[in-house]
Amino acid sequence: MVSEQDPDAQLMLRVQRxxxxxxxxxxxxxQQPVMNLLYRMLGDLPEAEDLCxxxxxxxxxxxxxxxxxxxxxxxxxxxxxxxxxNELRRRGRHSADSxxxxxxxxxxxxxxxxxxxxxxxxxxxxxxxxxxxxxxxxALAALPENQRTAIMLCREQELSYDQIAEILGCSxxxxxxxxxxxxxxxxQRLKPYLRxxxxxxxxxxxxxxxxxxx
Length: 214
Description:
With 214 residues, the protein is an all-alpha fold. The protein has two domains: 89 residues, RNA polymerase sigma factor, region 2, helix turn helix motif (Rna Polymerase Sigma Factor, Chain: A); 86 residues, Arc Repressor Mutant, subunit A. 64% of the residues lie in helices and 0% in strands. It is built from ten helices and no strands. Helix 2 packs across helix 3. It is elongated and about 60 Å long.
C-alpha cells in the first residue's frame, strides 16, 4: 500500500487525527520545496511566500478529506500548482502549453548531466558557476509554465514521470514530452553561452518564446 511505503502519508493520517506535531513535520520538510515551485511559477518571492502559507493552510483544512491514493508529495504539489495557476490566471499571465506526443525511447537523465555532455569550452572567470546558475535561472524562467514545472519537479524534487503527470493533469507520455522539450530548449539557449561566454538571452530565435506551443 502507498501508506506503508510513504512515511509522509502516515504523517498526514496523523494530521487527520489531530496531531499537530505531524503537521509541523510536513511543513518543515516541504515548505522550501513548495516555495521553490511557487517562485518558479510566479517569479515573485513575496507572492510565493504568501501562497506557500496558503498551500499549507489548504492542506490543514483539507486533512479530513485526505485519502491515501497516491504519495503525499503528489497530493501536496497538486494543491500548490493549482493555487499557483489560480494566481497566474488572476493576474492574467497564464497561457496553456500544448502537449505533444512523447518521443520513443527517451532517456531519463538530469539537466546537469545534459549540460555536461555539451563538450564545449566554458568561459573564464572566478564567478563562472554562479553566473552559469544565473543564466540557467533566466532560461528556466522563459519556459512555458508546464515545461518549467515539469522539469523542476523532475530535476529538483526528483519525482517520477507518473507523479509529475498526476500533478500536471496530463498523460505520462505528454509529461515526458514536456521534460524533453524543456531540456532541449535549455540546452539550445545555454550552448552558445558555454561556447563563447556571451549571453544572448531567451529571446534568441533558436528557442520558443514563453507560452508558445512549440
